[in-house]
Amino acid sequence: MVRCFLIHTVCPVSALGPGESRVLYSRVFGPDESIVSEQNRGLNPEERRLLQKEKVAVVARQVRSAVSLSREASGRPLVETVPGEEALALQEADSGVVRLRAGDPFNEEMSALWLGVQSLGFTLVCESYENLLLAEGTLRNLTRHCLEHLHMLGQGSEVLLRSSRVDTLLSRLLPHGQLLFLNHRFAQSLEKEVAAYMAK
């Protein structure tokens, strides 16, 4: 099962200090760990929400660090693409996996698959037993739809204002946090359905 999906910054942003990452969108699936775990059971809803927000921020910082290390190691210059070149940007994207140890930040060990597309990071946090190849395909598909239909690479792109569209994408491509095995015909019908909704 996928525990969460997030979109965040992976490059320095003027409003942030070095090493910081801003979470632009996050969606958590599955049961709330703070209700299940003994030590956090007494927290009120606001405290639970803040704890969840901090866990997502920890993942974003770890992925940001992995992206910057990957980019430094590759030595390739970061090429800015313009709206309309989303496919090229996705093809040039850095990618990888970060292992999240138990307790840092989730109770169980997790895997965070990430794609670094220019200044944006797209991350899928999966439980350790999950099929990582299937998760990578789903992450690339989600990222492609976000870039193409929501025009996230343009100047002044407001991911926060388009969160309902990202929610709809997730409900179609990652229902309730479950990775889907798609045959060719079902994948095509899903593509048409998503394209029709995004064109509204």
Automatic annotation (TrEMBL):
Q: Name one GO cellular component term.
A: late endosome
At the top level, the lineage of the source is: Eukaryota
Q: Which GO terms describe its biological process?
A: double-strand break repair via homologous recombination; endosomal transport
Q: Which Pfam families match?
A: AP-5_subunit_s1
The coiled-coil segments of this chain are: none
Recorded protein name is: AP-5 complex subunit sigma-1
What lineage, starting at the top, does this entry show?
Answer: Eukaryota, Metazoa, Chordata, Craniata, Vertebrata
